[in-house]
Design goal:
Layout lengths: L1 E2 L17 E5 L4 H11 L3 E5 L16 E4 L1 H4 L3 H11 L5 E7 L6 H8 L7 E2 L1 H4 L6 E7 L16 H9 L8 E2 L3
Parallel strand pairs: 1-2, 1-4, 2-3, 4-5
Antiparallel strand pairs: 5-7, 6-7, 6-8
Helix pairs in contact: 3-4
Length: about 180
């Protein structure tokens, strides 16, 4: 599930074995996005709706949520995060790349305000850039069924996500101080 899919440029970066990407964007151009998804070789469905609106995905059915600018542009990023948390499977990541140049420190706060996620990890070197500060990171949905439930997460679930995507060791991780 990708919030802020825009013109679909991220579709080229999804693994070729991706089952389906559901793109949510208030300005989604469905015809263009279908062409991009065919060129990228990734199955895709567009939802032209506000990002804050319910995405109608079943609870706990999504393997990953990607936000690329949707939280920073939203007047209610907490609504997007809450809907993403509802749809995500336990142990699944919320990966975010968010513009912070408009004073949207609330992007990280919106993620951490929900007890649904482990503490968000992000590279604060990007967040402190003078011209284009960005929050780039990951938050992993907690296992609310305990350590023995289906989809149980373990300490370091964010590291498992980085290993599975080939990102392990590619950047230094920073945790937001509490």
């Amino acid at each position: 599930l990708e919030y802020g899919v825009g013109q679909g440029r991220n579709l080229y970066y999804y693994p070729k074995n991706t089952g389906m990407v559901v793109g949510v964007d208030p300005d989604a151009k469905e015809d263009l996005l279908i062409q991009v998804s065919v060129a990228a070789g990734v199955p895709f469905v567009a939802k032209t709706q506000p990002c804050e609106a319910p995405n109608n995905q079943p609870d706990g059915s999504i393997d990953a949520v990607i936000t690329t600018g949707a939280l920073g542009a939203s007047k209610d990023p907490a609504a997007i995060v809450a809907e993403a948390a509802r749809a995500l499977k336990p142990g699944a990541p919320l990966v975010f790349v968010e513009d912070m140049s408009f004073g949207k420190g609330g992007v990280i706060d919106a993620i951490e305000a929900l007890d649904e996620f482990e503490r968000a990890e992000y590279d604060d070197g990007w967040a402190t850039l003078p011209l284009l500060p960005h929050a780039i990171g990951v938050a992993v949905k907690r296992d609310t069924m305990g350590d023995t439930g289906v989809g149980a997460t373990t300490k370091g679930a964010g590291d498992d996500f980085e290993s599975s995507t080939g990102l392990a060791g590619k950047r230094s991780k920073k945790r937001r101080p509490r």
